[in-house]
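Consortium newsletter contribution from the modelling node. Members have asked for a concrete example of what our holo predictions look like. Here is one, prepared for the magnesium ion complex that several groups have been discussing at recent meetings.
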Amino acid sequence: YEAKFGHHGVRAFSPALDSILTERRDLEKAMIHALDHGGFALHYQPQYANDGRLSAFEALLRFPHPVMGMVSPARLIPIAEESQMIVALGTWVLREACNQSMRWQKAGLPEVLIAVNISAMQFARQDFAHHVAEILEETGLHPELLELELTESVMVKDFAESTRQLERLKRLGVSIAVDDFGTGYSSLNHLHRLPIDKLKIDRSFIQALSEPNGTLPIVESIIAMAHRMGMCVVAEGVETPRQMATLREKSCNILQGYLFSPPVEADRAALFLATGTNPRLTSAELT
Ligand code: C2E
Ligand code: MG
Ligand code: MG
Ligand code: MG
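And here is the predicted structure:
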Protein backbone atom coordinates (compact mmCIF):
# COMPACT_ATOMS: atom_id res chain seq x y z
CA TYR A 1 0.00 0.00 0.00
CA GLU A 2 2.70 2.37 1.04
CA ALA A 3 4.83 1.45 -1.95
CA LYS A 4 2.00 2.34 -4.23
CA PHE A 5 0.95 5.62 -2.70
CA GLY A 6 4.22 6.87 -1.26
CA HIS A 7 5.00 8.22 2.21
CA HIS A 8 2.50 11.00 2.04
CA GLY A 9 -0.49 8.71 2.23
CA VAL A 10 -3.33 11.18 1.84
CA ARG A 11 -1.65 13.06 -0.99
CA ALA A 12 -2.23 10.10 -3.26
CA PHE A 13 -3.97 12.04 -6.01
CA SER A 14 -2.09 13.84 -8.72
CA PRO A 15 -3.50 17.17 -9.92
CA ALA A 16 -4.38 15.53 -13.25
CA LEU A 17 -6.34 12.77 -11.60
CA ASP A 18 -7.96 15.31 -9.33
CA SER A 19 -9.28 17.30 -12.27
CA ILE A 20 -10.59 14.13 -13.92
CA LEU A 21 -12.49 13.32 -10.75
CA THR A 22 -13.83 16.85 -10.48
CA GLU A 23 -15.04 16.77 -14.05
CA ARG A 24 -16.67 13.45 -13.44
CA ARG A 25 -18.43 14.77 -10.35
CA ASP A 26 -19.62 17.84 -12.28
CA LEU A 27 -20.92 15.63 -15.04
CA GLU A 28 -22.75 13.47 -12.53
CA LYS A 29 -24.37 16.55 -11.01
CA ALA A 30 -25.36 17.83 -14.43
CA MET A 31 -26.89 14.44 -15.23
CA ILE A 32 -28.95 14.40 -12.05
CA HIS A 33 -30.21 17.85 -12.89
CA ALA A 34 -30.93 16.88 -16.50
CA LEU A 35 -32.95 13.88 -15.40
CA ASP A 36 -35.35 16.13 -13.52
CA HIS A 37 -35.43 18.92 -16.08
CA GLY A 38 -35.76 17.22 -19.44
CA GLY A 39 -32.09 17.66 -20.30
CA PHE A 40 -31.60 14.28 -21.98
CA ALA A 41 -32.63 13.40 -25.50
CA LEU A 42 -32.89 10.30 -27.65
CA HIS A 43 -31.68 9.99 -31.19
CA TYR A 44 -32.84 7.24 -33.51
CA GLN A 45 -30.79 5.23 -35.96
CA PRO A 46 -32.58 3.26 -38.67
CA GLN A 47 -31.98 -0.42 -39.31
CA TYR A 48 -32.82 -1.67 -42.81
CA ALA A 49 -33.69 -5.19 -43.92
CA ASN A 50 -31.43 -6.40 -46.72
CA ASP A 51 -34.25 -5.78 -49.23
CA GLY A 52 -34.25 -2.11 -48.28
CA ARG A 53 -37.29 -1.94 -46.03
CA LEU A 54 -37.05 -0.04 -42.77
CA SER A 55 -36.91 -2.65 -40.03
CA ALA A 56 -36.36 -0.77 -36.77
CA PHE A 57 -34.99 2.27 -35.03
CA GLU A 58 -32.41 2.00 -32.28
CA ALA A 59 -32.88 4.64 -29.60
CA LEU A 60 -29.57 6.12 -28.43
CA LEU A 61 -29.10 8.41 -25.47
CA ARG A 62 -27.85 11.94 -26.04
CA PHE A 63 -26.80 14.51 -23.47
CA PRO A 64 -26.24 18.02 -24.77
CA HIS A 65 -24.19 19.64 -22.00
CA PRO A 66 -23.98 23.46 -22.04
CA VAL A 67 -20.20 23.46 -21.51
CA MET A 68 -18.95 19.99 -22.39
CA GLY A 69 -20.97 19.78 -25.59
CA MET A 70 -22.58 16.50 -26.63
CA VAL A 71 -21.41 13.93 -24.08
CA SER A 72 -21.10 10.37 -25.39
CA PRO A 73 -23.29 7.67 -23.86
CA ALA A 74 -20.14 5.58 -23.57
CA ARG A 75 -19.16 8.11 -20.92
CA LEU A 76 -22.60 8.70 -19.40
CA ILE A 77 -23.64 5.11 -18.84
CA PRO A 78 -20.71 4.08 -16.58
CA ILE A 79 -21.26 7.18 -14.44
CA ALA A 80 -24.96 6.45 -14.26
CA GLU A 81 -24.23 2.85 -13.27
CA GLU A 82 -21.83 3.78 -10.50
CA SER A 83 -24.20 6.30 -9.01
CA GLN A 84 -27.31 4.07 -9.27
CA MET A 85 -28.83 6.77 -11.47
CA ILE A 86 -28.99 4.20 -14.26
CA VAL A 87 -32.31 2.84 -13.06
CA ALA A 88 -34.04 6.22 -13.26
CA LEU A 89 -32.22 7.13 -16.47
CA GLY A 90 -32.99 3.75 -18.01
CA THR A 91 -36.64 4.21 -17.12
CA TRP A 92 -36.64 7.60 -18.78
CA VAL A 93 -35.06 6.13 -21.95
CA LEU A 94 -37.55 3.28 -22.11
CA ARG A 95 -40.57 5.50 -21.54
CA GLU A 96 -39.38 8.16 -23.98
CA ALA A 97 -38.67 5.59 -26.72
CA CYS A 98 -42.13 4.04 -26.26
CA ASN A 99 -43.79 7.48 -26.22
CA GLN A 100 -41.94 8.52 -29.36
CA SER A 101 -43.06 5.41 -31.16
CA MET A 102 -46.65 6.20 -30.17
CA ARG A 103 -46.25 9.81 -31.37
CA TRP A 104 -45.18 8.51 -34.79
CA GLN A 105 -48.14 6.16 -34.86
CA LYS A 106 -50.54 8.93 -33.90
CA ALA A 107 -49.10 11.07 -36.70
CA GLY A 108 -50.25 8.34 -39.09
CA LEU A 109 -46.79 6.93 -39.77
CA PRO A 110 -46.28 3.17 -40.16
CA GLU A 111 -45.55 1.06 -37.09
CA VAL A 112 -41.92 0.18 -36.64
CA LEU A 113 -39.89 -1.77 -34.11
CA ILE A 114 -38.04 0.34 -31.58
CA ALA A 115 -34.85 -1.03 -29.99
CA VAL A 116 -33.75 0.19 -26.56
CA ASN A 117 -30.38 -0.47 -24.91
CA ILE A 118 -30.63 -1.96 -21.44
CA SER A 119 -27.75 -1.79 -18.97
CA ALA A 120 -26.60 -4.61 -16.71
CA MET A 121 -27.95 -2.98 -13.60
CA GLN A 122 -31.44 -2.52 -15.07
CA PHE A 123 -31.58 -6.10 -16.26
CA ALA A 124 -30.38 -7.43 -12.91
CA ARG A 125 -33.38 -6.05 -11.07
CA GLN A 126 -35.92 -8.65 -10.10
CA ASP A 127 -38.81 -6.42 -11.09
CA PHE A 128 -37.38 -5.37 -14.47
CA ALA A 129 -39.90 -7.31 -16.59
CA HIS A 130 -42.73 -6.00 -14.47
CA HIS A 131 -41.39 -2.53 -14.96
CA VAL A 132 -41.26 -2.96 -18.75
CA ALA A 133 -44.86 -4.21 -18.66
CA GLU A 134 -45.90 -1.08 -16.75
CA ILE A 135 -44.25 1.23 -19.26
CA LEU A 136 -45.87 -0.61 -22.17
CA GLU A 137 -49.24 -0.28 -20.53
CA GLU A 138 -48.77 3.34 -19.60
CA THR A 139 -47.60 4.38 -23.06
CA GLY A 140 -49.91 2.06 -24.98
CA LEU A 141 -47.12 0.64 -27.13
CA HIS A 142 -47.74 -2.84 -28.49
CA PRO A 143 -45.11 -5.18 -26.94
CA GLU A 144 -44.23 -6.61 -30.34
CA LEU A 145 -42.94 -3.18 -31.32
CA LEU A 146 -40.36 -3.13 -28.53
CA GLU A 147 -36.95 -4.77 -28.67
CA LEU A 148 -34.47 -4.82 -25.81
CA GLU A 149 -30.74 -4.84 -26.57
CA LEU A 150 -28.53 -6.58 -24.03
CA THR A 151 -24.87 -7.51 -24.22
CA GLU A 152 -23.67 -11.08 -23.92
CA SER A 153 -21.91 -10.47 -20.64
CA VAL A 154 -25.12 -9.11 -19.11
CA MET A 155 -26.97 -12.24 -20.15
CA VAL A 156 -24.54 -14.84 -18.92
CA LYS A 157 -23.54 -13.22 -15.65
CA ASP A 158 -26.02 -15.19 -13.58
CA PHE A 159 -27.21 -17.65 -16.17
CA ALA A 160 -30.12 -19.16 -14.26
CA GLU A 161 -31.51 -15.81 -13.22
CA SER A 162 -30.94 -14.28 -16.68
CA THR A 163 -32.85 -17.14 -18.26
CA ARG A 164 -35.81 -16.49 -15.98
CA GLN A 165 -35.63 -12.76 -16.63
CA LEU A 166 -35.49 -13.24 -20.41
CA GLU A 167 -38.40 -15.66 -20.26
CA ARG A 168 -40.47 -13.15 -18.32
CA LEU A 169 -39.68 -10.53 -20.96
CA LYS A 170 -40.49 -12.90 -23.82
CA ARG A 171 -43.84 -13.66 -22.21
CA LEU A 172 -44.66 -9.97 -22.42
CA GLY A 173 -44.17 -10.19 -26.16
CA VAL A 174 -41.08 -8.01 -26.50
CA SER A 175 -38.09 -9.22 -28.52
CA ILE A 176 -34.50 -9.63 -27.37
CA ALA A 177 -31.33 -8.73 -29.26
CA VAL A 178 -27.75 -9.49 -28.24
CA ASP A 179 -25.76 -6.27 -28.68
CA ASP A 180 -22.07 -6.10 -29.63
CA PHE A 181 -22.06 -9.81 -30.35
CA GLY A 182 -18.60 -11.35 -30.46
CA THR A 183 -16.92 -8.94 -28.07
CA GLY A 184 -18.09 -10.26 -24.71
CA TYR A 185 -17.70 -13.69 -23.25
CA SER A 186 -18.66 -15.74 -26.25
CA SER A 187 -20.33 -18.41 -24.21
CA LEU A 188 -21.83 -20.15 -27.18
CA ASN A 189 -22.78 -23.05 -24.98
CA HIS A 190 -25.15 -20.77 -23.09
CA LEU A 191 -26.46 -18.73 -25.95
CA HIS A 192 -28.47 -21.43 -27.66
CA ARG A 193 -30.52 -22.00 -24.54
CA LEU A 194 -31.61 -18.39 -24.19
CA PRO A 195 -34.75 -17.01 -25.85
CA ILE A 196 -32.93 -14.63 -28.20
CA ASP A 197 -34.41 -13.21 -31.39
CA LYS A 198 -31.45 -11.36 -32.88
CA LEU A 199 -27.68 -11.17 -32.84
CA LYS A 200 -26.11 -7.81 -33.54
CA ILE A 201 -22.61 -8.40 -34.89
CA ASP A 202 -20.28 -5.87 -33.32
CA ARG A 203 -19.04 -3.00 -35.44
CA SER A 204 -15.42 -4.12 -35.09
CA PHE A 205 -16.15 -7.26 -37.15
CA ILE A 206 -17.90 -5.24 -39.84
CA GLN A 207 -15.06 -2.75 -40.08
CA ALA A 208 -12.44 -5.46 -40.63
CA LEU A 209 -14.60 -7.37 -43.11
CA SER A 210 -12.58 -6.73 -46.23
CA GLU A 211 -9.11 -6.47 -44.75
CA PRO A 212 -6.56 -9.11 -45.73
CA ASN A 213 -6.94 -11.83 -43.10
CA GLY A 214 -10.08 -9.96 -42.12
CA THR A 215 -13.22 -11.01 -40.34
CA LEU A 216 -15.22 -12.37 -43.28
CA PRO A 217 -14.95 -16.00 -42.09
CA ILE A 218 -16.12 -14.97 -38.62
CA VAL A 219 -19.02 -12.91 -39.92
CA GLU A 220 -20.09 -15.73 -42.24
CA SER A 221 -19.98 -18.17 -39.35
CA ILE A 222 -21.99 -15.93 -37.05
CA ILE A 223 -24.65 -15.50 -39.72
CA ALA A 224 -24.82 -19.24 -40.42
CA MET A 225 -24.92 -20.08 -36.72
CA ALA A 226 -27.63 -17.53 -35.96
CA HIS A 227 -29.78 -18.70 -38.84
CA ARG A 228 -29.47 -22.32 -37.78
CA MET A 229 -30.66 -21.32 -34.33
CA GLY A 230 -33.58 -19.43 -35.84
CA MET A 231 -32.17 -16.03 -35.02
CA CYS A 232 -32.02 -12.94 -37.13
CA VAL A 233 -28.69 -11.14 -37.72
CA VAL A 234 -28.03 -7.40 -37.61
CA ALA A 235 -24.73 -5.88 -38.74
CA GLU A 236 -23.82 -2.72 -36.82
CA GLY A 237 -21.52 -0.01 -38.07
CA VAL A 238 -21.96 -0.54 -41.81
CA GLU A 239 -20.05 2.36 -43.37
CA THR A 240 -19.14 1.40 -46.92
CA PRO A 241 -21.02 0.11 -49.98
CA ARG A 242 -18.56 -2.75 -50.09
CA GLN A 243 -19.44 -3.86 -46.55
CA MET A 244 -23.10 -3.58 -47.48
CA ALA A 245 -22.66 -5.71 -50.59
CA THR A 246 -20.75 -8.41 -48.73
CA LEU A 247 -23.28 -8.55 -45.91
CA ARG A 248 -26.21 -8.82 -48.32
CA GLU A 249 -24.46 -11.51 -50.31
CA LYS A 250 -23.92 -13.46 -47.08
CA SER A 251 -27.62 -13.10 -46.18
CA CYS A 252 -27.20 -10.84 -43.19
CA ASN A 253 -30.83 -9.89 -42.47
CA ILE A 254 -30.54 -6.33 -41.23
CA LEU A 255 -28.03 -3.51 -41.71
CA GLN A 256 -27.37 -0.49 -39.53
CA GLY A 257 -24.67 2.15 -39.88
CA TYR A 258 -23.52 5.54 -41.06
CA LEU A 259 -23.82 4.38 -44.70
CA PHE A 260 -27.59 4.63 -44.26
CA SER A 261 -27.81 7.23 -41.52
CA PRO A 262 -26.26 8.25 -38.22
CA PRO A 263 -28.61 8.44 -35.24
CA VAL A 264 -30.93 11.41 -35.85
CA GLU A 265 -33.58 13.41 -34.01
CA ALA A 266 -37.14 12.11 -33.94
CA ASP A 267 -38.34 14.53 -36.61
CA ARG A 268 -35.72 13.41 -39.08
CA ALA A 269 -36.37 9.79 -38.20
CA ALA A 270 -40.02 10.40 -39.11
CA LEU A 271 -38.90 11.15 -42.66
CA PHE A 272 -37.21 7.75 -42.91
CA LEU A 273 -40.39 6.24 -41.54
CA ALA A 274 -42.51 7.99 -44.14
CA THR A 275 -40.17 6.90 -46.96
CA GLY A 276 -40.05 3.33 -45.68
CA THR A 277 -37.20 2.03 -47.82
CA ASN A 278 -33.56 2.94 -48.31
CA PRO A 279 -32.50 3.78 -51.86
CA ARG A 280 -29.02 2.33 -51.35
CA LEU A 281 -30.55 -1.06 -50.79
CA THR A 282 -33.37 -0.92 -53.31
CA SER A 283 -31.28 0.13 -56.29
CA ALA A 284 -30.17 -2.84 -58.38
CA GLU A 285 -26.42 -2.32 -58.21
CA LEU A 286 -24.73 -4.06 -55.32
CA THR A 287 -21.49 -2.12 -55.24
P1 C2E B 1 -24.46 0.36 -29.16
O1 C2E B 1 -25.74 -0.01 -28.55
O2 C2E B 1 -23.64 -0.72 -29.74
O3 C2E B 1 -24.85 1.46 -30.25
C1 C2E B 1 -24.21 1.63 -31.47
C2 C2E B 1 -23.23 2.79 -31.40
O4 C2E B 1 -22.51 2.85 -32.62
C3 C2E B 1 -23.88 4.16 -31.26
O5 C2E B 1 -22.98 5.00 -30.56
C4 C2E B 1 -23.99 4.61 -32.71
O6 C2E B 1 -24.06 6.01 -32.85
C5 C2E B 1 -22.68 4.09 -33.25
N1 C2E B 1 -22.73 3.84 -34.69
C6 C2E B 1 -23.78 3.49 -35.44
N2 C2E B 1 -23.43 3.31 -36.72
C7 C2E B 1 -22.10 3.54 -36.79
C8 C2E B 1 -21.14 3.51 -37.87
O7 C2E B 1 -21.45 3.24 -39.03
N3 C2E B 1 -19.86 3.81 -37.54
C9 C2E B 1 -19.49 4.12 -36.26
N4 C2E B 1 -18.19 4.41 -36.05
N5 C2E B 1 -20.36 4.14 -35.24
C10 C2E B 1 -21.65 3.87 -35.50
P2 C2E B 1 -23.45 5.89 -29.34
O8 C2E B 1 -24.79 6.48 -29.64
O9 C2E B 1 -22.32 6.80 -29.02
O10 C2E B 1 -23.65 4.85 -28.18
C11 C2E B 1 -22.56 4.14 -27.65
C12 C2E B 1 -23.01 3.04 -26.71
O11 C2E B 1 -23.61 3.61 -25.53
C13 C2E B 1 -24.11 2.14 -27.29
O12 C2E B 1 -23.52 1.17 -28.12
C14 C2E B 1 -24.71 1.57 -26.03
O13 C2E B 1 -23.93 0.51 -25.54
C15 C2E B 1 -24.60 2.74 -25.06
N6 C2E B 1 -25.91 3.43 -25.00
C16 C2E B 1 -26.41 4.38 -25.82
N7 C2E B 1 -27.65 4.76 -25.42
C17 C2E B 1 -27.94 4.02 -24.33
C18 C2E B 1 -29.08 3.93 -23.47
O14 C2E B 1 -30.10 4.59 -23.64
N8 C2E B 1 -29.00 3.04 -22.43
C19 C2E B 1 -27.90 2.25 -22.24
N9 C2E B 1 -27.90 1.40 -21.20
N10 C2E B 1 -26.82 2.29 -23.04
C20 C2E B 1 -26.84 3.17 -24.07
MG1 MG C 1 -27.30 -1.10 -29.03
MG1 MG D 1 -24.27 -2.40 -30.53
MG1 MG E 1 -21.51 -1.45 -30.21
